[in-house]
Design brief:
This protein is mainly beta and 321 residues long. 11% of the residues lie in helices and 36% in strands. A seven-stranded mixed beta sheet has the order 1-22-19-24-18-16-17. This is Cupin. It comes from Pseudoponticoccus marisrubri.
Length: 321
């Protein structure tokens, strides 16, 4: 593959195209300054304005959320895995029916494999614009987003109505639900009762990995972060490895399906049969299946990279109460 062809599979941080109308809370005060990005796959956006950078199926989706300080993403859940790692800023993640069951604060490089089956939200509690990168299980990302009832009610008060089809309509622009299309129904009490309310103490040990712990564990070989034998043992339909200068190798390897490289610290040189590219923090590179490649830091100093590859596991619930 030529460098020009591979460049079509690299999404540079500075070239990310945001969408500010991606979800139902786009008008809700406190959430109306969010920027959402769909990098690989269709994502879960409810807006036709969302730009998709790479449409090639990988078995998972890659996205991102950028938010100014004190801006939050409203309570929701997905039918498949949702994993975040912090690229920049300081973030508070919270969960439960009302967002009060538990919480955790993450710093750059930390990763959170959020259990399915619980409502979750997050906010930038830093002092500058921050970015978190997301991995969603499945090519269709579980079919979309399930919102806590109060989110849908608050959104309607500010002009946004979500149809049962999953499409948003903005009444401030004169839009109305089409004839024969009903609004998205609120979850019943029976459905809400199925959602978990785990405490912070229950979630942290098996769902959060800290950057500096992973750096220590990746001193000789890549740290398996998410996988059957991972630091966070799970089989969500993909595996995540954490690589540092001590565990990177110039020996080329390949996979039988597309894989993704996402630097979180430092610059990385990726070599493949046919070319070379350099990735910076916030860049995302999709490596084709069967293509032999390697990734090593391109300069001295702190460096870390996340590597994601799909598996044959069927994405499903991770929180069973």
């Amino acid at each position: 593959m030529t460098p020009q062809e591979m460049e079509q599979r690299i999404v540079r941080y500075g070239e990310l195209i945001p969408c500010k109308t991606a979800f139902i809370d786009a008008h809700t005060p406190g959430s109306d300054q969010k920027e959402n990005f769909t990098i690989i796959g269709g994502g879960v956006s409810e807006s036709p304005d969302q730009h998709v950078h790479i449409t090639i199926p990988h078995g998972f989706n890659i996205g991102a959320a950028g938010q100014p300080p004190r801006v939050r993403n409203s309570l929701h859940d997905h039918n498949t895995a949702e994993v975040f790692f912090v690229l920049s800023g300081r973030w508070r993640f919270f969960w439960g029916r009302w967002g009060t069951a538990g919480e955790v604060t993450l710093e750059p490089g930390d990763i959170f494999n959020i259990p399915t089956g619980i409502f979750r939200g997050f906010e930038n509690i830093g002092t500058e614009y921050g970015m978190i990168m997301a991995i969603l299980g499945g090519d269709d990302a579980g079919g979309g987003v399930n919102w806590a009832p109060q989110v849908i009610e608050d959104a309607a008060d500010h002009g946004l109505v979500l149809a049962e089809t999953g499409k948003l309509y903005d009444t401030k622009k004169g839009e109305r639900l089409p004839a024969g299309v009903a609004p998205m129904p609120l979850m019943s009490e029976a459905e809400l009762a199925k959602r978990g309310e785990p405490t912070t103490a229950e979630v942290l040990p098996n769902h959060v990995a800290r950057y500096w712990d992973m750096v220590a564990l990746a001193d000789r070989a890549p740290c398996k972060v998410i996988g059957e034998t991972g630091l966070l043992r799970d089989r969500p339909g993909f595996e995540v490895d954490f690589i540092t200068p001590d565990s990177a190798t110039k020996a080329k390897h390949s996979h039988d399906r597309p894989s993704v490289l996402m630097p979180v610290k430092g610059h990385w040189r990726v070599d493949w049969d046919g070319g070379r590219a350099t990735l910076a923090p916030g860049d995302t590179m999709s490596v084709p299946e069967g293509l032999a490649h390697s990734a090593v830091p391109s300069m001295t100093g702190e460096a870390a990279l996340y590597h994601i590859v799909g598996t044959d596991d069927v994405p499903g619930p991770t929180w069973k109460g």
